[in-house]
Amino acid sequence: MTTGLRERKKLRTRRALGAAALELAVRHGLAEVTVEQIAEAADVSPRTFFNYFSSKEEAVVAADLERAGEMVDRLATRPADEPVLESVRAVTRAMLGEPGARRKEWVRQVRLVRANPALVPHQLAAYAAIEQRLAAVIAERAGMGADDLYPALTATAVMAATRVATTRWLDSDGRTELADGIDEALDLLTTGLGHPPSRAP
């Protein structure tokens, strides 16, 4: 879907503010960063900052929200008859395979959240918003209502599986592949959680 010049400029400003907030928080520590510093780094006024974010904490987690939103947008373009979890797997693999600074930015943001409990409520609020969007996409694919149990539960399960896989990957210090971890989590959702997977002796 194409967007107008105004929307593209707003998106660039939002990304610039989020990137500045993350960079400053990583460099100086979240507690030491002010909205004024973030606005200055993004070359906008503090008043403009508050047109996009309600706090510096919300700005720091913006990259995670945007990345999850991109996943939902891509999922909406997958074939309607493709199983939902296979669509999620394909979209996730494609996004993780793309090089660029935005992935590094996302990893830095996840690590920052883990080190700063004050950011957790803002991240959870962002995930809740994404789960609603994801549920709406799943409901449309399934020909169901957005308030039906299946799309709501599937969206929540997908987001939870992604978060758990990401946490395990970060804890491995790069010894595992994130895409493989997400595949494993999605496999468990596909086969069901009634019994734990068997382990080779």
From TrEMBL:
Pfam family, one: TetR_N
Record feature DNA-binding region, as residue ranges: 34-53
Domain HTH tetR-type: 11-71
Keywords from the named record: DNA-binding, Transcription, Transcription regulation
A single GO molecular function term of this UniProt record: DNA-binding transcription factor activity
The keyword DNA-binding appears for this protein: yes
Listed transmembrane segments: none
Domain of life: Bacteria
Keyword Aminoacyl-tRNA synthetase recorded: no
Signal peptide bounds: none
UniProt name for this protein: TetR family transcriptional regulator
Protein species of origin: Actinomycetospora cinnamomea
